[in-house]
Amino acid sequence: MQSAPDRHEYPAHWEADVVLRDGGTARIRPITVDDAERLVSFYEQVSDESKYYRFFAPYPRLSAKDVHRFTHHDFVDRVGLAATIGGEFIATVRYDRIGADGMPASAPADEAEVAFLVQDAHQGRGVASALLEHIAAVARERGIRRFAAEVLPANTKMIKVFTDAGYTQKRSFEDGVVRLEFGLEPTDRSLAVQYAREQRAEARSVQRLLAPGSVAVIGTGRTPGGVGRSVLGNIRDAGFTGRLYAVNKAFPEELKELDGVPAHRSVRDVGEPVDLAVVAVPAEQVPAVVAECGEHGVQGLVVVSAGYAESGPEGRERQRELVRHARAYGMRLIGPNTFGIINTAADVRLNASLAPEMPRPGRIGLFAQSGAIGIALLSRLHRRGGGVTGDTGVSTFVSSGNRADVSGNDVLQYWYDDPDTDVVLMYLESIGNPRKFTRLARRTAATKPLVVVQGARHGGSAPQGHAVRATRLPHATVSALLRQAGVIRVDTITELVDAGLLLARQPLPAGPRVAILGNSESLGLLTYDACLSEGLRPLPPLDLTTAASAEDFRRALSRALADDTCDAVVVTAIPAIGEGSPGDAVLAEALRSAAEEVPGKPVLVVHVELGGLAEALSAAASTAPQSGSGEPAGQADDARPGAADEEPPSPGSGGPAGLIPAYPAAERAVRALAEAVRYGQWRRDATEPGRVPEYEDIDERGAAALIDGLLARGQGLTLGTEDTCELLGTYGIHVRRAVPAPSPDAAAEAARAIGYPVALKATAPHLRHRADLGGVRLDLADEEQLRRAYAELTELFGTPQALRPVVQGMAPRGVDTVVRAVIDPAAGAVLSFALAGAASQLLGDMAHRLIPVTDREAASLIRSIRTAPLLFGWRGSTPVDTPALEELLLRVSRLVHDHPEVVAVTLEPVVVAPNGLSVLGATVRLAPPPARDDLGPRTLPAY
Description:
The chain is α/β, with parallel strands linked by helices.
């Protein structure tokens, strides 16, 4: 608690857990009067040199006055933050607000002096950089816009912390001291620096879990069976290259070894460092185990134990305490209730999971939030024969369980620059931070394919064990936004594996043109139809007849691959009978040979009841272990000798030449190919993302002033017609005037002011935008027609008070469309577009993009709905002015992006004519802007 003179309550929202450069964690929190002893202890562990750099003079100890000053803060003009591990300080930072004369001041002074001190043992871990991000966010919250820091020239590490932060800086040198001044508003460079640091730190934290030098399995049973004993056996049998220990407090004193593994009663008894602890004890015993691990310096935990949030409210609180406890010691955590982790790298060979067999080594990264789905995925990728077959293996596997700490975002950070992973497959049941996931997915997809299937899509809530923020967006919208970020979105586990195997084995297609050849006319036609259904452009199938030999297949495939009018080839094969029919191995080798002769285009095989062909295709050029002893390719035992020395294929190259994926059905093969085509197009488009145009007539300051004045009336409000038109007008969006007509005379007066012809509309909620109900009368040429229409509406629907009629000038004929923008608390700002009426309301034909939208994205947005042909002259109609529509979308995007207080905009209908457009209706909702965690300092999710 703070003393009476302090002006503000303790700001608990400043507390945060952060990942440091080396992958460990620390907690950042405000310093209070209760921290006096911690501060003194911390200072005693700082070297004399660091103390000199901080105070510019020898300063061996803090005086009582110093301790009071550094622990008493008002949390406005004087703020101190500490980074802690295990409850003890490892670094501090403070700011003091100053005036123009450099003396202590209060608001409205907007500058502050900042100073750091980092314990020598923790220097180089990125602690100061993390503290700078957090103290800058605190300062901005308190109205401070600039920091000043005085640093000795010899203190190059601290100068680098400031200069590398990415803020706009000014440097001067006077009296032997370097003075740095910099603004605190985030810049493109500071955000880029922050994201790069975040990626390195989070990737390193996952790497420490996946590539430990030593592992302790805590909870290993004394008798065979049980979770702990199974995990121990799996790690040992996989050939883990590091040190392995069995730990159980119930072991007798004399037990020194279990199954050939050193045995200990406590992790404290292990005489060497332990990097990773696999925890398999009952949930009530886990806190004591976490404390032992933290005190022993364990770097990370894999908690297999169940009984947490998946079991109800009591378990959820137990899970929160587990995360807090682990982070207090600087440890990251996978689980609880996890299936485990796997790393097939030859220099690691870690199977810290419940999977009894180590998967084949390969280049697919696999993430699953569900243990059961993780088992299914590993099994399907591992086995040969049945379904999608082959020898494409796994680089790393993570089952997140309840995803209490390490999430899919963290693992994506690791896979982004992991040289052993070319393709990422993810099964997600919830997305804890969609805004961050979208950002990371876009960056990852630019270098390697990311395939995602999302479970629990229609359950309306996340699985019980997952703590995630709510989103108001329907699943279809989330899927569209993921696709915009380059994610390959599929609906089933089967499709996940189908697409993953193709992307891991074959190059990306350059376009949608598909050649089809094979020995079955019927199977070729099925493949042709499937291509059309998926939006591909198939060439007429080439029927080689059932008498085709392996050489016939080879020649036909070579010709197809060399044809410039073809981007991919699907080979169909059915069993052939007769002496001349090719054997499976011969046919597979022929196909592989042709693909190798003309590389660069993907080849897929559709086979019917030819399990041998699928195996032979894998064996023809396999990533499975090879040996000089003549073992058959595709054997699932040891890694290939020398594999670590081979040059890995570049992302998207498809891996070893000739490794051709085989599918048991044409629809599955074509669906996988279609996803690869769309992803390839996204990759090409991503190289030129477009730009956000500037418009000279946009009055950003005028809009801000208007919004501030409107919000002064209340916390959230839907604007009236006049205010809506005025605000939209500041961004060049003009709404056609609609005049209320509470009586026939008022309607006639409004029409005279507007000018005939006019429209008469009922705007009551049950009639608004429902022309099909008859609440609209158009092209009223004179007062007589207007009064007659008014009488008809009141006769049909009731009194004018119930109808709420308005008179509006007629707009040029065109296509009615809808433009919407909304700020979702989880996903961020989203721009949506559709045709008005049944197309969007009944069929859900609406497209979405994340804001801010570029000119290329605006063009693709209006073309991505199924009813888009109506805008481009369908069946002989006149094409409408799509450039004007694109400009409107860009202006709405700018409005919402520039002013996050605009939380919802709806323009309906927007009539797009052959020349120009007319906005006939608009609503705008304002509210205080929601927090943007992606613009704040790096922090782990609060728990």
